[in-house]
Amino acid sequence: MTNTNQDKLVAMTLAGEIAPPSIPGGIYEITHDGRPLVIPSVGGICLNVRVGDPAFGWVGDHIEPAVSSRHPDEKTNIGYNVIACVGNPVTVTSGEAKGETGVVTGKHGGIEHVMVDFKPKVLEKLQLGDKLSIRAFGIGFALADAGDIKLFNMDPDFFEKWGAALEDGKLHVNVAKIVPAAIMGSGLGRNTVLRGDYDIQSFDPVTFEKYGLGELRFGDIVAIEDADHSFGRIYRTGAMSIGIVAHGNSLIAGHGPGVTSLATSTSGAIVPKVTKKANIATILDLR
Question: Which CATH number fits the domain 150-283, given the four candidates 3.10.180.10, 3.30.230.80, 2.40.30.20, 2.102.30.10?
Answer without folding.
Answer: 2.102.30.10
